[in-house]
From TrEMBL:
This is Membrane-bound lytic murein transglycosylase B. Its EC number is 4.2.2.-. The gene is mltB_5. It comes from the Bacteria. Keywords: Lyase, Signal. It comes from Roseibium album. The lineage of its organism: Bacteria, Pseudomonadati, Pseudomonadota, Alphaproteobacteria, Hyphomicrobiales.
């Protein structure tokens, strides 16, 4: 999905379990309570927005709560794997081979997509591979049930209620079958996993049949993905990620997202590309997913678009790196990173950092942005290489 629900959707404080809000115009039940009354309110809102009562009835008449969806939502999968472990798992020879074959097979639609939206084939192909294995694994949750369940649930109704109404519009347009359309647990549909509202706004008919069907049509999926990525701010003709070799005397505190230098400035510090040439005039951040002894990358402005697609740092960096491989880059130099922390150690580290006043968010064992920033600051204060990679040595020092 664009903006993957199970990684990027943010909880909204103030929405408590069982809370119901009233819309000013329709006074419709927003979440919780009797499911039938909730669906009646959704129909009322959909009709008020110009959709047909018949389409609303066809969409909602068989809808039911899916407890498996709620279970997935309460236990959202979050990456605790390292970048090396995760990227090795998802960037297989099979996916590289099939990615190249699909770029060749659909060369004309990829070219059209790049001409119209500026997004090159490797970028879309990497998402296509990671999201659904080129359409082979699109999810088996009934889409309407998933959206109705999450819209009725009071954790994030402000997100999912509009998606349910967008699904009604797709039914009206004959682009969704309420009984048969399936996808991911959070309502994403198709080869590149998009939510209904995004399909309505950015869906493109790539094969000329008059419909946007992202489950069946690779051409529709490719063109739609390009349109959406363009909407997120993709910069035509610019790189997104580049593997580099770094000198060991670098000031590691200057690494990390949010800290940028021009490519020329990084080069002056001894940072050298392992493939291609550094874009001298573009700002770039130095990413060290597993510290100064592991792989190193320059992340250019287009890398930020990956974070819009999915805010997981490990997924994002793997997807961006995968796209460089499809574009011709060699396999990364894995280096020899210092050992990291296991789950219990990471939680212990987060607790210690929080006790020192750092905002690391939930004590969950996840090396997220807050924990990375705290680690880097503490490393610097302790006189350790400030590469934001937590190690047993750092934990012992704390």
């Amino acid at each position: 999905m664009t903006r993957r629900a199970h990684f990027t959707l943010k909880s909204v404080s103030g929405f408590l379990a069982g809370l119901c809000l009233l819309t000013g115009a329709a006074s419709a039940q927003q979440c919780g309570g009797d499911f039938g009354q909730f669906l009646a309110g959704v129909k009322q809102e959909a009709v008020a927005k110009g959709l047909s009562a018949n389409a609303a009835d066809r969409t909602l008449s068989g809808a039911r709560i899916d407890r498996k969806v709620l279970s997935r939502d309460r236990a959202q999968g979050v990456f605790k794997m390292t970048f090396l472990d995760f990227s090795k798992r998802v960037i297989s020879n099979y996916r590289l081979k099939n990615g190249a074959a699909n770029m060749k097979k659909y060369a004309s639609i990829f070219q059209r997509t790049e001409n119209e939206y500026g997004v090159p084939a490797p970028v879309i192909t990497a998402f296509w591979a990671l999201e659904t294995d080129f359409g082979a694994v699109q999810g088996d949750f009934n889409t309407v049930n998933a959206l109705a369940t999450l819209a009725h649930d009071c954790r994030r109704p402000e997100l999912f209620r509009p998606q349910l109404i967008a699904a009604i519009e797709m039914v009206q347009n004959s682009d969704l079958d309420p009984q048969r359309t399936t996808g991911a647990w959070a309502g994403e549909i198709g080869m590149v996993q998009m939510l209904p509202e995004d399909i309505i706004k950015f869906g493109k008919d790539g094969d000329g049949d008059g419909h946007v069907r992202l489950k069946q049509s690779a051409a529709d999926a490719i063109l739609t993905a390009g349109a959406f990525i363009n909407h997120l701010g993709w910069r035509r003709g610019e790189p997104w990620l580049q593997e580099v070799a770094v000198p060991q005397n670098l000031n590691w505190a200057e690494s990390g997202l949010g800290k940028t230098k021009t490519g020329a400035q990084w080069a002056a510090l001894g940072v050298q590309p392992r493939w291609g040439s550094i874009s001298s005039n573009l700002p770039a951040s130095l990413l060290l997913p597993q510290g100064r002894k592991g792989p190193a990358f320059l992340a250019y402005p287009n890398y930020n678009i990956y974070l819009e697609w999915n805010q997981s740092f490990i997924y994002t960096t793997s997807a961006a790196y995968f796209a460089t491989r499809l574009a011709g880059a060699p396999r990364y130099d894995a280096g020899n990173p210092d050992p990291g922390l296991n789950d219990a150690q990471m939680k212990q580290l987060q607790t210690k950092l929080r006790n020192k006043g750092y905002d690391v968010g939930k004590i969950d064992g996840i090396l997220g942005a807050g924990t990375r920033a705290a680690v880097q600051d503490v490393q610097q204060k302790l006189g350790m290489p400030a590469d934001a990679w937590p190690t047993p040595a750092l934990l012992n020092r704390l």
